[in-house]
């Protein structure tokens, strides 16, 4: 199966797993998806992750994070911004603020995949991959 937008597929799989209240979601791996997963884990949006390199491509197993009392997911919205048909880039001066600073924008920069806040600190711009809040 050839996928035209693997990042959108990644976000959709996570979104669908949250809607179905799954604990774990499996996603085909790529280096960019692994970096996005690390950012989500560092910012506390997912409970844990594991990279399985058993097959040729490998998989990413993501343990989703829910509130123990209300059973509400830590991730409320995952939104793809830059698409293959229309790429969205942001410089340091035009960096997006997600939910007035409460959410994060994940960017692919020349210094690696990072959040909008980290990109401002390092004074780099890049492609805005997605919004998470």
UniProtKB/TrEMBL annotation:
Keywords: Ribonucleoprotein, Ribosomal protein, RNA-binding, rRNA-binding. SUPFAM superfamilies: Ribosomal protein S8 (SSF56047). InterPro entries: Ribosomal_uS8, Ribosomal_uS8_CS, Ribosomal_uS8_sf. It comes from the Bacteria. Pfam families: Ribosomal_S8. GO terms for cellular component: ribosome. One of the primary rRNA binding proteins, it binds directly to 16S rRNA central domain where it helps coordinate assembly of the platform of the 30S subunit. Part of the 30S ribosomal subunit. Contacts proteins S5 and S12. HAMAP family: Ribosomal_uS8_B. Belongs to the universal ribosomal protein uS8 family. This is Small ribosomal subunit protein uS8.
